[in-house]
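Bumping my old thread because nobody answered last time. Still need a sequence for this structure:
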């Protein structure tokens, strides 16, 4: 089941890739069904807050008519940053599954761990490494393509 939902997140990442956005995709699941899908739109919208996770939380909240996403799980291709991890905590997401670590800005273990190292009013579970190779590959391809274009 985890791979099925991460594949859906990877489809979102591919949409971002095609828009020349950093290819991160996210889905939010409740009761075994995807209720929200999103991908990065920072470049497109010229807004640093348009990360896949934030956009997915907004869509899920609208669908459920609540900011509390109780009993919802998030699948995201890249480890969330501190902004997104804070939003995940505040939205009351039950569990985050992510594909690959983000050694530069990851806030669920790579740079810091907001979910374990601090005491917040809501505890979020997490699991990493879901379809890790596929999640890493799309990011590596994107940055390789970007470097080639900049070196021309």
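Sorry it took so long. Here it is:
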């Amino acid at each position: 089941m985890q791979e099925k939902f991460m594949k859906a997140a990877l489809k979102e990442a591919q949409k971002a890739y095609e828009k020349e956005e950093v290819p991160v995709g996210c889905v939010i699941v409740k009761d075994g069904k995807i209720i929200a899908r999103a991908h990065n739109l920072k470049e497109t919208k010229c807004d640093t807050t348009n990360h896949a996770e934030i956009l997915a939380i907004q869509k899920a909240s609208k669908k459920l008519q609540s900011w509390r996403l109780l009993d919802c799980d998030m699948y995201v291709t890249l480890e969330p940053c501190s902004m997104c991890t804070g939003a995940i905590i505040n939205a009351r997401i039950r569990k985050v599954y992510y594909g690959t670590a983000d050694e530069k800005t990851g806030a669920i273990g790579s740079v810091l761990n907001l979910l374990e190292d601090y005491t917040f009013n809501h505890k979020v579970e997490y699991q990493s490494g879901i379809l890790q190779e596929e999640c890493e590959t799309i990011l590596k391809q994107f940055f390789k393509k970007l470097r080639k274009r900049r070196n021309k």
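The CA atoms of residues 3 and 44 lie 28 Å apart. Let me know if any region looks off to you.
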